[in-house]
Structures are given as structure tokens and as C-alpha cells.
Amino acid sequence: METVQSRFTDRAKKAIRIATDRAISSQRQTVSPEDVLWALAVIEMGPGRAALELLGLDIAKCVDELQSLPSTQLPDTDKLIAEAHSHAKAMGHNYVGTEHLTLALLSCGKCQAESFFRTRGITRETLRASVKSVLGH
After folding, report:
1. Interatomic CA distance for residues 16 and 10, integer angstroms
2. In terms of CATH architecture, what is 10-135?
3. Which residues have a Cβ under 8 Å from the Cβ of 134 and sit 6 or more positions away?
């Protein structure tokens, strides 16, 4: 039987694992979008981070700022993962990578992670175009 994360790349699995560890260490029961965003900033370079850098955002340099973002619980992790799957499918990919997780963060609505991107002029559309460029589509 296929699990929710069975189609995740190793880097995307690592990001979710790090986000989960961060939530647990903060004594929270659920992983927030901000936990996922922070995890994407601290793991090694992948397509999600490369797409952000192409848009002028070096997320790795924002770790301290991301650490201080208040955690929101919208959407829950399952919805965020489902949104990442949706972005992957829409792009014709049979896997979920960091690029899809990053795109999903721009769909969370009223969360600090989405606001972090929007204040820097990054929208779902600009990020999707940047992801396609990074992936050579």
C-alpha cells in the first residue's frame, strides 16, 4: 500500500522529518507551514531553494528570521502535503520534491510562511515559473 510520502524525494522527506522534529521540540502536536519553511531553509540545496534563489531570495540566509516566525496551524500538514501532491500532478511530475512543498506554502492562506514570500514579491505564479526554469521545462 502506498503511503502519503512514498512519492516524496529524499530531500522532501528530509524536510518533513526536520519540520516534524522542530514541532516536537517546540512541544507542538502538529507541524506548521512555518516549520516546513524553516526546514526547507536548513536542508541542502534542492529545486525549491534554487527556484527561490532565481527569484532573488536566498532562503538559507533567512534562517534566523524564519526561526522567529510564529507558527500557524493552517493548513494542517496533511493539507499541505496534499497541496504539494496537487502541484506535482499539475506539473506532470510523478514525485513530490522540495519545489512542490515550496509551492504548497504559497497556497496555505493566511499563514506566516505565505506572508514571508508575499512580502518579498514571490507569488505562486512567479515561483511556478521559476521552478519550471530550474527544472528545464
Report:
1. 10
2. Orthogonal Bundle (1.10)
3. 47, 50, 51, 54, 99
